[in-house]
Design brief:
Strand content: 25-35%
CATH class of the largest domain: Mainly Beta
Biased composition (Basic and acidic residues): 529-539
Protein name: INAR1 protein
Number of strands: 36
Radius of gyration: 59 Å
Shape: elongated
CATH topology of the largest domain: Immunoglobulin-like
Region (Disordered): 506-539
Number of helices: 6
Helix content: 10-25%
CATH architecture of the largest domain: Sandwich
Largest sheet: 5 strands, antiparallel
Keywords: Membrane, Transmembrane, Transmembrane helix
Number of domains: 4
Transmembrane segments: 416-443
Length: 539
């Protein structure tokens, strides 16, 4: 009988971009053996096994099933078996696959163009012009260019490039070969290299006219571009800039360079470029040189990251002394009106202070500050101290030069117990001088008020009913006293042996005379008439 068919072995899945290939091996060499594969979709055990399109009844040990996969982030399962003349082998072991995890980055496209001694490159991303893509964001690719001189003893050189870029510094009339790969650092994936392309460089025209050695110097966000020139004839320079993110795009940015304001016709070797370096990110600068007879030459580009290129200047320092405390006030580098420095750098300050004495070789001490105002304590009296300050940016690993040193002398030592005693004595005397007269005035006022409104003497009980006031106040006006008219009869009348004594009337008259309130000489006749009438009534 026939030997039973063996299962396929070493089943593997290969994914490049959206191209899927299934491969395996088979120990049998019998003719007429074919192979078929099945797969399960993302639902796993919830779906039945299906024939894998492109991998049914194939005679080789490889098949392409790219059309069968459309979900790149879901799980898939695959298996293969052999078959011959109605006989089938057992299924191979099942292979699990998540397309996006298995996929490799395919080779990008590469175009080369020699330009005035340099090579201009243009890279097209993997899966360019494809509707079905594994990599959705073309701008996330980072390109690594490898190139070498096409000679027997050349060495490989590599550099990170943008989709449209220029390779300079090449020898003229020399053939160079290039290849490039696309990488995704965020996913730790390195792509396949493109096929090798070679091109021959040309000679640079007007090479002596070109500006060379471009460099940007910045202090407190004020930037200047410097360059060198070997040209001996009259020449003018124009500085151009390109916003950095434009180079990340796949489009050609050669027409998007702009002239820096104020740097359109420069005859020297520097120009201020701060007007265009106003935001975070990065920029590119280059210099176009123009000579006589319409000659021109475009320099190499220089990349500028303002916050990294900028140098921090020294801060300002102001000192104020009080007893043994030294107050340090710091002005931020660039001044308080420098908004770019204030908005982009978080600065701390390092204070260096020491005794400025020829007899004292004490080392300088350091105090760190997060704010612009600090105090140094524990200083000796009548001693000259000097201070200088440095600004530090931890985020950018930058530090300024130290400021110019400022010096001040602490005052002489004071005897604090004597000062306290003298202060207390002066305060006590001042309080006494103020309080004693005030107490005297208040007491006098109190006595007068009490004497006027609350006198100490009271009227006798026998005249309380009159409501009179026997102790008139010298400060109150005395009302006019009313005068009562009285008549007094001095007679002794006897009626039927009973004697009537008018002594009481006489006593009343005498009392009235004594008081001066009950006598009246003008009314004597009236009194007599009254007495006669009384006697008649008695009779």
């Amino acid at each position: 009988g026939q030997v039973p068919l063996q299962s396929p072995q070493h089943v593997e899945v290969h994914v490049v971009n959206t191209n899927f290939t299934l491969s395996w091996s088979h120990p049998g060499k019998e003719p007429g053996v074919t192979f078929s594969a099945e797969y399960q979709g993302p639902d796993g055990g919830g779906t039945a096994w299906q024939w894998l399109p492109g991998c049914h009844n194939v005679s080789g040990t490889r098949c392409d099933f790219s059309l069968a996969i459309s979900e790149f982030y879901d799980s898939h399962w695959l298996r293969v078996r052999a078959q011959r003349a109605g006989h089938v082998s057992p299924w191979s072991h099942t292979v699990h696959m998540v397309p996006a995890h298995e996929a490799q980055i395919g080779p990008p496209g590469l175009e080369l163009q020699p330009t005035n001694g340099d090579i201009k490159i243009k890279i097209s991303p993997p899966e360019a012009n494809q509707d079905k893509k594994m990599w959705l964001d073309d701008l996330s690719f980072k390109y690594n260019l490898v190139y070498w001189e096409n000679s027997s003893d050349s060495q490989l050189r590599s550099k990170s490039v943008f989709p449209v870029d220029t390779v300079d510094g090449l020898a003229p009339d020399t053939t160079y070969c290039f290849r490039v790969q696309a990488n995704l650092p965020a996913e730790a994936k390195e792509g396949q290299f493109s096929p090798t392309c070679c091109v021959r460089t040309t000679r640079k025209v007007n090479e002596l006219l070109c500006a060379t050695n471009l460099r940007v110097l910045g202090l407190n966000m004020d930037f200047h571009l410097h360059w060198d020139s070997q040209y001996k004839q009259p020449v003018s320079y124009s500085v151009q800039y390109l916003i950095g993110y434009l180079k990340r795009l796949n489009d050609d940015h050669s027409g998007k360079w702009l002239e820096v304001p104020g740097c359109g016709n420069v005859t020297g070797g520097r120009c201020r470029v701060s007007p265009v370096l106003t935001t975070t990110g990065f920029y590119y600068l280059r210099v176009l040189a123009r000579g006589q007879g319409h000659q021109c030459c475009l320099s190499a580009e220089v990349k500028v990251d303002p916050l990294k290129t900028n140098e921090i200047g020294p801060p300002g320092v102001k000192l104020d002394i009080s007893d043994t405390l030294l107050h340090v006030q710091i002005s931020p580098p660039g001044g308080p009106g420098n908004e770019l420095m204030r908005d982009n750098y978080v600065l701390s300050y390092r204070i260096l202070y020491w005794k400025n004495s020829s007899n004292d070789e004490e080392e300088a001490k350091v105090k760190e500050l997060k704010q612009t105002i600090g105090t140094i304590a524990g200083l000796e009296p009548r001693t000259l101290y000097c201070v200088k300050v440095q600004a530090v940016s931890e985020a950018y690993n930058k530090s300024s030069a130290y400021s110019q040193q400022e010096c001040t002398q602490t005052p002489a030592e004071k005897s604090f117990p004597l000062v306290i005693l003298a202060t207390f004595t002066v305060a006590l005397v001042a309080v006494l001088l103020l309080v004693v007269p005030l107490v005297f005035v208040l007491y006098q006022a109190y006595s007068k008020i009490k004497y006027v409104f609350f006198p100490s003497c009271q009227p006798p009980l026998n005249i309380e009913g009159f409501g009179g006031q026997l102790c008139p106040s010298p400060y109150l006006s005395t009302p006019e006293e009313p005068i009562e008219n009285c008549s007094i009869i001095e007679s002794m009348v006897t009626y039927e042996g009973n004697q009537v004594d008018f002594k009481d009337y006489k006593h009343s008259k005498q009392s009235s005379r004594d008081s001066g309130n009950y006598s009246n000489d003008d009314n004597t006749s009236g009194s007599k008439d009254s007495a006669e009438m009384l006697q008649k009534e008695i009779i």
